[in-house]
Amino acid sequence: MYSRPMTTADPATLPPAFLRVKASASYLGIGPTKLYELVGQGHLHPVRLDRRTVFSVRELQAFASKRATEAGVPVALYGEPEPIGAR
């Protein structure tokens, strides 16, 4: 039976799990003020890491996908298979 040797991923090559406020706002294409409005409305949930406020990349992706779907825009997130016939 063939088994692959166990390898560990280099953390430097992994995408970040969290983004700071400015990067999160930029990721969504909005400003920090609008980002905080979305937090106030309960759409996004910041996380405190020590003294830093950060946002989960997965939550940002889910939020963007939900909003795009509501607007009728087809979305394939990073890591998801492309829909059949999309090309």
Feature tags:
87 residues; three-stranded antiparallel β-sheet; 3 strands; 3 helices; Multidrug-efflux Transporter Regulator, Chain: A, Domain 2
Structure, described:
This protein has 87 residues and is α+β, with helices and mostly antiparallel strands. It has a domain at 16-70: Multidrug-efflux Transporter Regulator, Chain: A, Domain 2 (Orthogonal Bundle). Helices cover 36% and strands 13% of the residues. The protein is built from 3 helices and 3 strands; from the N terminus they run βααββα. It has helices at residues 21-28, 32-40, 57-70; strands at residues 18-20, 47-49, 52-56. It has a 3-stranded antiparallel beta sheet with strand order 1-3-2. A hairpin with a 2-residue loop joins strand 2 (47-49) and strand 3 (52-56). It is flat, with a radius of gyration of 17 Å. The relative contact order is 0.14. The model has no long low-confidence stretch (mean pLDDT 83).
The CATH topology of the domain at 16-70 corresponds to Multidrug-efflux Transporter Regulator, Chain: A, Domain 2
The overall pLDDT average reads: 83
Helical content stands at 25-40%
Distance between the termini: 39 Å
Question: Biggest β-sheet, characterized?
Answer: 3 strands, antiparallel
Strand coverage percent: 5-15%
Q: What general outline do the C-alpha atoms trace? A: flat
Helix and strand element order: EHHEEH
Overall strand count: 3
**Low-confidence segments:** none
Q: Which assembly state applies to the chains in this document?
A: single chain
Q: What is the radius of gyration?
A: 17 Å
Number of helices: 3
Q: What structural class is derived from the secondary structure elements? A: alpha+beta
Return the CATH class of the domain at 16-70.
Answer: Mainly Alpha
Question: Largest beta sheet: what is the strand line-up?
Answer: 1-3-2
CATH architecture of the domain at 16-70: Orthogonal Bundle
